[in-house]
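Hey, can you fold this one?
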Amino acid sequence: SFVGFLKAPGEEALDTSANDVLDSAALPEEQDSLPEVTMLADTYYCGVDWDTVSSNCDTATPCPSGDANECPDGEQCIAFTNCGGMFNFMSNPNVEGGGPDVESVKKTFYCGTSWQFLENICDGATPCPNGPNDCTGEEEGCFAFTGCNDEVDPGSFVGFLKAPGEEALDTSANDVLDSAALPEEQDSLPEVTMLADTYYCGVDWDTVSSNCDTATPCPSGDANECPDGEQCIAFTNCGGMFNFMSNPNVEGGGPDVESVKKTFYCGTSWQFLENICDGATPCPNGPNDCTGEEEGCFAFTGCNDEVDPGSFVGFLK
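Sure. Predicted structure:
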């Protein structure tokens, strides 16, 4: 997974609060709801750390009780992995072994009703970090990703959210864009030139993306724009437009740059949204690779079978 929430050209940077994320998904009204904490049990899997588990979901052993006794010897039960097909958690570079900070996620757990929290009505709501047993009110549930705790922003660690009763989200680029139910004129893939706004100076991706306020932009991609000892890092989470997810196999963090570039193709945004790739040519070096009249170089297309853009592109606003 490379990128979570994605902003469309001409739009303000996406507010990743839980309510706005769910609103952007345009779910049927009866399913537009926050998940109960019990649903998160489907993300508990055995392994040595979060990075390893989330990269090997097919072979990882589920441990829905949260008890390591369900796991093979030498493995622990890891919470909030990206296994199970329902959630896409973003890894916090400050967490050893990867993954979101477990205690921060639990700080969003509150007793009440999903509708109450979607309306951001937190008055009188009580925390339930230990699950529904903490709730005593009649017909109350324990819900995750509420905005009731000022210490945490639920949008900072959860990406795709599946509605109860729905199949797991197909994260192919077209389906993600369709699910956003955008105005027609804004339903588009970004041109590669827009990604220049994510190029920032630093020692590695993790450091830059954690210090956007003080990092120096280097939109040309040239390290000569950077202070001594720093390089120009591509596809950071700085700039307010994209939220890339870090690949645990990339030293220093961040997405695999060459994999992202494999999604760059010449054509029109509409063409790629319709998944029409016949005759489209790659443009890994940007728009200079494109020779057709009125062609642009677009990112996150589905034209290269080696990479799935849906593995790193999230909601497009």
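Confidence is low (pLDDT under 50) at residues 1-31, 160-186, 313-317. Let me know if you want another pass with a different chain boundary.
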